[in-house]
Amino acid sequence: xxxxxxxxxxxxxxxxxxxxxxxxxxxxxxxxxxxxxxxxxxxxxxxxxxxxxxxxxxxxxxxxxxxxxxxxxxxxxxxxxxxxxxxxxxxxxxxxxxxxxxxxxxxxxxxxxxxxxxxxxxxxxxxxxxxxxxxxxxxxxxxxxxxxxxxxxxxxxxxxxxxxxxxxxxxxxxxxxxxxxxxxxxxxxxxxxxxxxxxxxxxxxxxxxxxxxxxxxxxxxxxxxxxxxxxxxxxxxxxxxxxxxxxxxxxxxxxxxxxxxxxxxxxxxxxxxxxxxxxxxxxxxxxxxxxxxxxxxxxxxxxxxxxxxxxxxxxxxxxxxxxxxxxxxxxxxxxxxxxxxxxxxxxxx
Length: 349
Ligand code: NAP
Description:
This protein folds into two domains: 5-121 and 261-344, FAD/NAD(P)-binding domain, CATH 3.50.50; 137-257, FAD/NAD(P)-binding domain, CATH 3.50.50. Helices cover 22% and strands 26% of the residues. It contains seven helices and 18 strands. The protein is elongated and about 65 Å long.
């Protein structure tokens, strides 16, 4: 391909998490030849989960990476073309198509784009955190827990992910400390029960109404200790000057942040796709067809880029299939302008 040419694709799916792969399976079966772009977190968040116990059809559970691999195989069987590349920008053209630029330098123009690029782990922004990310500070217990075998570890958060990570880390840690900023957990009862079992056994120490202020250590030697704030009324950082707020140091060898995720939607900023103030894509919704349509014709959203509530593998899969069906309906009205032919870049200018 010359620098002046871009490749035309009928449909591009950005993301290979459960939403993207479900879209790819449906799009492949609808003969829309999806190009599926796999970003820096191939397979999405489920690949970070050891055991998926609530995905229908697997009564004994299934490993996250295995579930993802099975879906990839299924998508490829129906003609999906998987390629590596993070979508860096997307732009709606006057002719109705969408220009897509990928981190590999590849450029495409497509008739329909399914945005299924998921979400990435959030961080706190406290001193020491950024410097030590990858050197004892981590957003993935499944990936990094085993590196800190025998050490004390801190998990921050009070949702399902924090409970799951704390429970998982008991395999490696001497003691797992779980710091949550308020009294009540957001996590579902199942996880809270498991946490409490471990707390009773002495593997986990729960620190409610506690927030992380600072991580101390060096990239050479890793995390040495953390500084925490505690106030029994909750949200101690907001009440840092309250005499009832105490600060304490805790010697730990690793810190795991499990404080939620931010949707990966920056590449859609110039498209006209509407997003809320947190970056989640607004889709049409409702109970009729076209639920995954965005404000821009030809661009559809599915999975964690849209969903700030359910965020389950099964809901992401459902949305991915809906997006592919909505895109297929849209494409029926759009002439297939020569599949996989090259078109001049800027033909629209
Ligand atoms: P989440 O449910 O959004 O929970 C994030 C937690 O981090 C909350 O407890 C929140 O505190 C805390 N937090 C957020 N910002 C913070 C800050 N700046 N400082 C201190 N604490 C902060 O995220 P998640 O646990 O990653 O779960 C996301 C979704 O995935 C959920 O729908 C969950 O059900 C799902 N999930 C499911 C499983 C499963 O096994 N089924 C496992 C993992 C995740 P507040 O509670 O005070 O807001």
